[in-house]
Design goal:
Strand order of the largest sheet of chain A: 1-9-8-5-4-2-3
Keywords (chain A): Lyase
Helix content of chain A: 10-25%
CATH class of the largest domain in chain A: Alpha Beta
CATH architecture of the largest domain in chain A: 3-Layer(aba) Sandwich
CATH superfamily of the largest domain in chain A: Bacterial phosphonate metabolism protein PhnH
Shape of chain B: globular
Strand content of chain B: 25-35%
Largest sheet of chain A: 7 strands, mixed
Strand content of chain A: 5-15%
Structural class of chain B: alpha/beta
Radius of gyration of chain B: 15 Å
Number of domains of chain A: 2
Largest sheet of chain B: 6 strands, mixed
Largest interface: A-B, 35 and 28 residues
Protein name (chain A): Carbon-phosphorus lyase complex subunit PhnJ
Mean pLDDT of chain A: 90
CATH topology of the largest domain in chain A: Rossmann fold
Number of strands of chain A: 12
Oligomer: heterodimer
Order of helices and strands of chain B: EHEHEEEEHEEE
Number of helices of chain A: 7
Strand order of the largest sheet of chain B: 1-8-7-4-3-2
Organism (chain A): Halarchaeum nitratireducens
Helix content of chain B: 10-25%
GO molecular function, one term (chain A): lyase activity
Chain lengths: 334, 159
């Protein structure tokens, strides 16, 4: 964290060629450390601290314009760049992949402006920015996961009025969401929500866990790491601290369930305990592959590798990890 | 803040100065007892002065003359408008000969104890100020180069 701002260099050029020559570098001279100016970072950090102090509550922040359209991860970038320091290692994933254009560009922005190391290995990173997934490998207490959030309020799907929803959060009035879940059960026989599963944080706030699959929701509960959720377009931040109760909403007789893949295993590494996605080959046949590419590569080298292989003790980390391994439905069954 | 009651090292000595200057700029209102902090921030145009009862960031040396129960605690709709109170204390952590706090809640596995050199009455006042959750105040204790946080989400008990 630095508190000095480098003034933009005032230069006058003799000719057009001289201007063009000056563009040979990355053009990053004069930018503040980590791209954002100190004032913006300070404001984001203040909001993150309040978000951590009130788990699950959406804290407003300024959300500055970024060199990227709102809705493409600008909230996540602002949170990440405000947290990162020069000794940190940064990883960015987009739908489980380190190689998507968006992830690669965000990683490069942080590398060039914040002078951080970047990595694709979950266990090597200090800060991970992610869109739509939580990594398969268990995170530890010195890591921070920053999630990009398109829609901040879980109640938005039952009432589009933000003012009304904020009043509902104030009074912990989540009746409308329970009715929505009940209607789901009546129509489908089970709760039919693929992602953004409504989740209760520390028994107080209903939270939209961003569009992670149901598979990842149990990882939020009693984790060792801090989760920061940041929405650039909606200018809100919220957080789940470590060791916090996070419970997906469900009924006693209609339990929360994670995705089921039947007998499918990953085409590349053979895993049957990771979140799989369908791909269709040229022959029209559907195959399954791991969604988390970095862990899939490790599993291809060592198929027996556990999700908490780097940790000293067994860590509960969603479906297919120690305390929930025997429970085919995943979650804590509540 | 995400691990209430753990004692962390700050890179700069006078950790309360480090915390205040990290948080304060012209967008928030501040109350401090410390003239040096006030002058330093004012010279950067970052200090917007307020009374303890109206400030966003409140800085005190040990037990304050005002009541921590009277500082801003936000509203139910926007509890994050509650103030952050920074206490400069003499000692913090296992060697502190003073009040022992037992903490439970988010960020604390089972329970955690913290020793801080503040009178039990002041700690009770903090617990009171935080008891209107989700409204309330967030507290940072700072001694020499050590800090520890007490966000409003934890339950504090004097042992």
């Amino acid at each position: 964290m630095t508190d000095t701002e480098t003034p933009r260099a005032e230069t006058s050029y003799e000719s057009v060629d001289a201007v063009l020559d000056s563009l040979d570098d990355e053009g990053l001279d004069g930018y503040s450390y980590a791209y954002l100016d100190e004032h913006t970072k300070r404001e984001v950090r203040r909001s993150i601290l309040k978000a951590v102090a009130i788990p699950g509550h959406q804290v407003p922040y300024a959300s500055r314009p970024m060199p990227l359209a709102r809705g493409w991860g600008t909230g996540g970038i602002q949170a990440s760049l405000s947290i990162l320091g020069p000794t940190d290692t940064f990883k960015v994933i987009d739908q489980g992949s380190d190689e998507s254009v968006n992830a690669a560009n965000i990683r490069r922005l942080a590398r060039d402006t914040a002078a951080v190391e970047t990595t694709t290995d979950t266990t090597d990173s200090d800060v991970i920015q992610t869109r739509h997934r939580i990594p398969e490998e268990a995170l530890s207490e010195d890591q921070i996961l920053v999630l990009q959030v398109p829609v901040t309020d879980a109640l938005r799907k039952v009432d589009p009025s933000d003012a009304a929803n904020r009043r509902r959060h104030a009074h912990k009035n989540y009746g409308k969401m329970w009715v929505h879940l009940y209607e789901n059960v009546v129509e489908w026989g089970e709760i039919n929500i693929a992602s953004r599963y409504p989740t209760m944080v520390a028994g107080r706030y209903l939270m939209d866990p961003s569009p992670i699959p149901r598979w990842d929701v149990p990882k939020l509960d009693d984790a060792d790491n801090l989760f920061v959720f940041a929405a650039g377009r909606e200018a809100r931040l919220y957080a789940v601290p470590p060791n916090t109760d996070v419970e997906p909403l469900a009924f006693e007789d209609r339990e929360f369930q994670v995705e089921r893949f039947g007998d499918a295993t990953c085409q590349f590494c053979g895993s049957d305990d990771t979140y799989l996605v369908e791909i269709e080959g040229d022959d029209g046949e559907t195959r399954y592959v791991c969604n988390d590419t970095s862990f899939c590569e490790k599993r291809q080298d060592d198929p027996e590798l556990a999700k908490d292989h780097h940790r000293e003790r067994d860590v509960s980390w969603g479906p297919g990890t120690p305390s929930e391994g025997a429970d085919a439905t995943g979650g804590d069954g509540t | 803040m995400s691990r209430p009651g753990t004692v962390q090292q700050t890179p700069a000595e006078r950790s309360d100065h480090a915390v205040v200057t990290t948080l304060v700029d012209h967008e928030v209102t501040t109350h401090t007892f410390d003239e040096a902090v006030r002058r330093a921030l004012e010279s950067h145009g970052r200090f917007d002065s307020a009374t303890p009862e109206t400030a966003d960031i409140v800085h005190t040396n040990g037990s304050p003359t005002w009541d921590v129960r009277d500082v801003r605690s936000g509203t139910l709709v926007e509890p994050s408008a509650g103030a952050t109170v920074i206490y400069r204390v003499d000692a913090l952590g296992p060697d502190a000969t003073a009040t022992t706090l037992r903490l439970t809640g988010p960020g604390v596995p089972d329970e955690r104890t913290l020793r801080v050199s503040l009178p039990p009455t002041e700690v009770d006042a903090i617990a009171d100020a935080q008891s209107v959750y989700p409204r309330g105040v967030d507290v940072v204790f700072a001694a020499a180069d050590r800090i520890s946080a007490l966000p409003r989400s934890v339950t504090v008990e004097v042992v």
